[in-house]
């Protein structure tokens, strides 16, 4: 079958301009700050009950890898909790894809630079305290995923600044143990929440291959994580409680009256769980936000966090739900009163949504063009694009249903323009994108594919489906998805590029006399590669096809260098910027409401 795409090793893994003074009771703006010569942004939500001069608690919420402050605000529902409880919540954005919790000193991601996030967060707290009336004894830290890793580091370096810490979907790495200063030993209360089916942070831990040139990295097990924090918090290791359904471990007798707690939800993955009842995905009956609020602020109606977690688990409707992970980026310019376009990007195999966010660099475009970018995870790091197709085995993973449900769930948390939802994919994700073009044309307005061709069987399934706008990008020297297709035992595994384009041109009823091509002038920084653009026009419903032939190009993302090994995946053409090209194409199209 297809050659594997290298899985990118993840982190998955002088503030000169202050915050403007609060001039009214409720402030839901994104503030810009400059720290260490880098422009940073933070979304601040102030409850209607806030009164200047009356100190209130502050919750600092740190987003996961490749996400954003506005995304985690929407996905957690913390704004509503802040209005109910009367606290301010601040959602800072990482400078690039990730919080620099110290990982950059051990095994940095290529094309990323170290960032002083420790300094930034501490200075941000000072600015928030100077701008709003904050009770400095009630500053709480919450982090999810990579934001949880940053929270671990802050709890090591500046524990005196926080009353309590809540971590979602993250365990410590071995570098946290190395970096935590032994001279800072102030105990801090901490709740750690991890799903038992978390791919990124399995309860047993995992080793990460960083190559010969970097120190070995390991995600510590839950036992190792609890042991580290129990020792650091001076907990009595012989004095703890264990609960089942769900799995809870609670160390109450720690230094300075602090506690250490762990909660694991059976079958849950790397998500911030919500138990709203309206969402379709990841419904394990548990709501991390409600649990976190009770842990931070105490019982409500005589119900503490562990009682609530137990009640939620026992009342769960679908405890055997399959966990589906996804990463969401919402730009700082997002206005919840305005419908906003969404681009869902499907990774190759084997990879993850977070890994593809790094490879694709689409957040950069989403930030400037004001659209939402979403990176879902396929099961077992791939997509089941052949479901129901003749001649293929059935692994029963319904990725079509998953992607449909994902769009519907996102529309519950964000103001999604349902007529401007787009789908794109790379490699294995490109095959899935073509399957979705035939199976979900009523939900996506346009489609884009990088490094994938058509595959046997789909032409029968797609025969009676309507025309759809489609963009292809493919390198002539792609060694993973071959330009001339792949045959095994006399059968096609992947079709040649020419036949793939031919199928879609016929499918869209394009005029064979209206095929134009343009050779882009080389910019001079892509030796050995060049770009020719084919435009198939005169298609049904003006659903045209555009194809970018990358002569000499490999299996990668044009315009995004340094992410994949050039020796293995080929040369990266820099004459085009694929994320920008894709958005420019997709954004031309709007789904006809009659098709929905």
How far do the termini sit from each other? 35 Å
What's the CATH class label of the largest domain? Alpha Beta
User: How many individual helices?
Assistant: 16
The helicity comes to: 25-40%
At the third CATH level, what is the topology name of the largest domain?
Rossmann fold
The averaged pLDDT comes out at 91
Helix/strand-derived category reads alpha/beta
Biggest β-sheet: strands ordered side by side in the sheet: 1-2-4-3-5-6-7-12-11-10
Cα shape: elongated
CATH-defined architecture of the largest domain: 3-Layer(aba) Sandwich
Q: How many whole angstroms does the radius of gyration measure? A: 25 Å
Q: What about the largest sheet?
A: 10 strands, mixed
| Domain module count | 2
- CATH H-level superfamily of the largest domain: Alpha/Beta hydrolase fold, catalytic domain
Low-confidence stretches: 1-17, 21-26
Strand content: 15-25%
Describe this structure in words.
With 596 residues, this protein is an alpha/beta fold. It has 2 domains: 30-314, 3-Layer(aba) Sandwich (Rossmann fold), CATH 3.40.50; 326-595, Alpha/Beta hydrolase fold, catalytic domain (Rossmann fold, 3-Layer(aba) Sandwich), CATH 3.40.50. It has 16 helices and 23 strands. It has helices at residues 69-76, 78-85, 117-131, 146-157, 174-179, 222-232, 288-297, 305-314, 353-360, 362-369, 399-413, 428-439, 458-461, 497-507, 566-569, 578-586; strands at residues 30-35, 38-45, 56-62, 88-92, 134-144, 164-168, 189-195, 206-208, 217-219, 241-243, 247-251, 260-265, 326-329, 340-346, 372-376, 416-426, 447-450, 470-475, 486-488, 491-494, 515-519, 530-536, 545-551. A 10-stranded mixed sheet has the order 1-2-4-3-5-6-7-12-11-10, sandwiched between helices. The protein is elongated, with a radius of gyration of 25 Å. The relative contact order is 0.09.
């Amino acid at each position: 079958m297809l050659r594997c795409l290298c899985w990118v090793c993840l982190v998955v893994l002088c503030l000169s301009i202050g915050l403007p003074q609060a001039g009214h009771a409720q402030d839901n703006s994104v503030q810009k700050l400059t720290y260490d010569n880098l422009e940073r942004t933070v979304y601040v939500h102030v409850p209607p009950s806030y009164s200047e001069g009356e100190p209130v608690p502050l919750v600092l919420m740190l987003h996961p890898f490749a996400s954003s402050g506005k995304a985690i605000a929407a996905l957690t529902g913390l704004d509503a909790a802040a209005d109910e409880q009367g606290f301010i919540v601040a959602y800072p954005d990482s400078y690039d894809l990730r919080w620099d919790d110290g990982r950059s000193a051990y095994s940095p991601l290529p094309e990323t630079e170290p960032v002083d996030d420790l300094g930034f967060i501490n200075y941000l707290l000072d600015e928030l305290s100077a701008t709003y009336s904050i009770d400095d004894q009630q500053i709480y830290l919450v982090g999810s995923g990579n934001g949880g890793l940053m929270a671990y580091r802050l709890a090591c370096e500046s524990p005196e600044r926080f009353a309590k810490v809540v971590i979602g979907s993250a365990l410590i790495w071995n570098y946290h143990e190395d970096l935590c200063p032994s001279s800072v030993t102030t105990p801090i209360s901490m709740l750690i929440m991890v799903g038992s089916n978390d791919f990124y942070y399995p309860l047993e831990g995992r080793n990460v291959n960083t190559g010969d040139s970097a120190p070995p990295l390991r995600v510590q097990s839950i036992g190792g994580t609890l042991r580290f924090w129990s020792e650091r918090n001076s907990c009595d290791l012989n004095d703890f409680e264990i609960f089942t359904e769900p799995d809870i471990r609670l160390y109450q007798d720690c230094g300075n009256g602090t506690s250490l707690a762990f909660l694991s939800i059976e079958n849950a993955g790397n998500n911030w769980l919500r138990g709203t009842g309206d969402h379709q995905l990841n419904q394990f009956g548990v709501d991390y936000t409600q649990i976190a609020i009770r842990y931070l602020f105490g019982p409500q109606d005589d119900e503490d966090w562990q009682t609530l977690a137990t009640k939620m688990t026992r009342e769960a409707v679908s405890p055997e739900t399959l966990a589906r992970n996804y990463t969401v980026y919402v730009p700082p310019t997002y206005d919840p009163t305005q419908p906003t376009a969404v681009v869902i990007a499907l990774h190759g195999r084997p990879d993850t949504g977070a890994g593809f966010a790094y490879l694709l660099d689409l957040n950069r475009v989403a930030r400037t063009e004001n659209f939402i970018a979403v990176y879902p995870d396929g099961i077992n790091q791939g997509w089941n694009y052949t479901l129901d197709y003749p001649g293929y085995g059935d692994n029963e993973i319904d990725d079509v249903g998953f992607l449909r449900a994902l769009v519907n769930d996102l529309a519950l948390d964000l103001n999604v323009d349902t007529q401007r939802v787009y789908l794109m994919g790379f490699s294995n994700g490109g095959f899935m994108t073509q399957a979705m073009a035939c199976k979900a044309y009523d939900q996506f307005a346009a489609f884009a594919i990088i490094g994938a061709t058509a595959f046997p069987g789909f032409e029968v399934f797609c025969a009676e489906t309507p025309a759809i706008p489609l963009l292809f990008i493919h390198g002539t020297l792609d060694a993973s998805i071959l330009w001339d297709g792949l045959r095994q035992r006399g059968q096609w595994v992947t079709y040649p590029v020419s036949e793939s384009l031919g199928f879609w041109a016929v499918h869209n009823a394009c005029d064979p006399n209206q095929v134009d091509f343009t050779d882009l002038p080389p910019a001079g920084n892509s030796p050995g590669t060049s770009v020719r653009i084919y435009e198939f026009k005169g298609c049904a419903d003006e659903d045209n096809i555009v194809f970018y032939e990358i002569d000499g190009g490999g299996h990668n993302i044009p315009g995004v260098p340094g992410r994949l090994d050039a020796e293995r995946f080929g040369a990266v053409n820099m004459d085009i910027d694929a994320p920008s090209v894709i958005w420019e194409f997709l954004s031309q199209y709007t789904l006809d409401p009659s098709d929905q």
